[in-house]
Every structure is written in C-alpha cells, then in structure tokens.
Queue: 2 jobs
Job 1
Amino acid sequence: MTSNYTIRLDADLRREAETLFTDLGMSLATAFQIFLRQAIQEQGLPFPVRKKQPNKATLAAMKEALGIAESPDAKTYSSAREMMEDILK
C-alpha cells in the first residue's frame, strides 16, 4: 500500500537532485524513501545538522579584528562622517 505526498521544491534544486539521483540509478521518489527510512532508523536526521564553522583564515581574521578593536591604541571616531573623511585623505 502506498500514499502520495506533495512537496514544493525550488526548480533548480529539484533539477540538480534529479540529475544526481539519476546518476546513482534511482528516482527522486526512491531517494526520498531512502532518506525517510534512514531517518526512522536513526530516530532523527540521518546526517549531522549544524551551523558552518568558519575556516582557519576566517577565525584568524576574526581574532585579529577583536585584537584591534580591544587595543587601547585603536583609532576611534565620533561619527561615520569623521571616519570617511579620515579614510579618504
């Protein structure tokens, strides 16, 4: 026994997914069924869901920016106009 379930997908996402799953020898419907079976087996999403972590270069830039911001020698401005005038000198 089967039942139908309708979902809305972004057209590009659907096209890319159909291409991928066709290359893997299955339909989009089969891929959804596999996803659902794995979710049931795992009792949750069958893959980790987390926010992306910044890479090493971004973390280093963030650390540098915090160091500059916390420095007592950091240049400060009382307005955006003052800052822009200094930058454009």
Job 2
Amino acid sequence: MPKGPNGEKRPADAVGLAVLIGKIATGEVEDAAPDDGKDKAAQAMGKKGGAARAASMTPERRAEIAKQAAAKRWAK
C-alpha cells in the first residue's frame, strides 16, 4: 500500500482513494493528521510573538527585512 508524504497509508487504486476522500469530506472517516512532535502551546506562542514583532516594527524596517530575505532566497 502506498504511503503519503507524512507516512500515512492510502489506497493504491484511484477509485479507492476517491472513496476515502469522499468519506473524509462528509465526516464518515476522521483523517488523522500525524503528530509532528511539536508542542502545540509553543507553536501558538511563536505565532503570537511573530505578530507582536511585526506590529512593533516600522514599515520601512519590515521592508528592509523582506528585501534581505528575498536576496537570500534568490542567491541560491
């Protein structure tokens, strides 16, 4: 049986996969997302911190950081 990108088992044939997707969409089957091993509370706090950092910066500083990030991405 093939595995998805996170190691979950899925049907090999197209019809079986379509049936599974339909069941997930209608709520008959629960699509269990694999645990990524990260603390959910820590993830939530990180999102709050990022938003607070962005709110405290000036638009010019945010643009400067964005330009640096774009330069790093395109330098590869």
